[in-house]
Write a structure and sequence with these properties.
The structure is a single chain. Helices cover 43% and strands 11% of the residues. With 245 residues, it is an alpha/beta fold. Strands 5-4-1-6-7-8 form a 6-stranded parallel beta sheet, sandwiched between helices. A two-stranded antiparallel ribbon has the order 2-3. Helix 1 runs antiparallel to helix 2, helix 1 crosses helix 4 and helix 5 packs parallel to helix 9.
């Protein structure tokens, strides 16, 4: 980790594991989605659990799960094969709708994200969300958490800019804000987020509040913090970056 980092002029936040508690939201939600898709086919349901590296009794994912950072376009073909469904846009939309419904039911924030984004927004920083969730899902959750007034863009895997780790979302935000990519920070909790920032030429900031540890690649980031609240304290000058271990 680089102990000295220039303050970003705009920030894109990952959603799950960064603003939204992944385990408490998507652990139970994913189990419910898989059960709805499998219906009465218990063998298919068990295969979905296994392929998703999902511990049904504990309602959580193993850190190896393709669902932690991937979009429905990435793990969807495997699910479709298990369910003997066509791996097409209709199936992916169905999965996204189910996740929107169940994700709203179990939605749990990390800390007080609305207050954090409000502080950053008040300082004049353009803010956005870049997630591998579907855009309608992300917008619904941003509304429910009170984030929408503070963000000028919400990008999902279906927004037309590709999924992370492709750099399209960051580049779209650069175009929207008129700011150079190098002055924009992407804040997230996974290797996908780090790789997205690097592919775009943006600043890479990692948070430790996601479901998987970031220690293995933390040295590649510009900054590593525990939460977005701590990041706001650093950016707004109430805590020095050098104090972050």
């Amino acid at each position: 980790m680089r102990q000295t980092v220039n303050a970003p002029r705009a920030i894109l936040f990952d959603k799950d594991g960064t603003l939204v508690d992944f385990d408490h939201t998507w652990g139970p939600a994913a189990g419910a989605v898989m059960r709805r898709l499998a219906g009465a086919d218990t063998a298919a349901l068990e295969r979905l659990f296994n392929a998703s590296h999902y511990l049904a009794d504990e309602r959580r994912f193993l850190q190896t799960s393709p669902l932690i950072a991937g979009s429905s376009r990435q793990y969807g073909p495997l699910w479709a094969e298990i369910l003997a469904r066509a791996p097409d846009s209709d199936f992916y939309r169905e999965v996204d709708v189910l996740f929107r419904e169940e994700g709203e039911r179990f939605l749990t924030p990390i800390g007080r994200p609305a207050q954090v984004l409000a502080r950053l927004h008040a300082s004049g920083l353009p803010l956005g969300i870049a997630t591998n969730d579907a855009e309608p899902n992300a917008r619904l959750q941003a509304d429910r958490l009170g984030l929408s007034p503070y963000v000028m863009a919400i990008y999902g895997h279906d927004s037309g800019y590709g999924s992370k780790p492709a750099p399209g979302m960051v580049r779209a935000f650069s175009t929207l804000t008129g700011l150079p990519v190098a002055t924009i920070a992407l804040v997230g909790d996974t290797r996908h987020d780090l790789d997205t920032a690097r592919a775009a030429g943006a600043m890479a900031i990692l948070v430790r509040c996601g479901p998987a540890p970031v220690d293995a690649f933390a040295h590649e980031a510009d900054l590593v913090v525990d939460t977005v609240e701590q990041l706001a304290d650093i950016i707004l000058g109430t805590q020095p970056a050098a104090a972050v271990a």
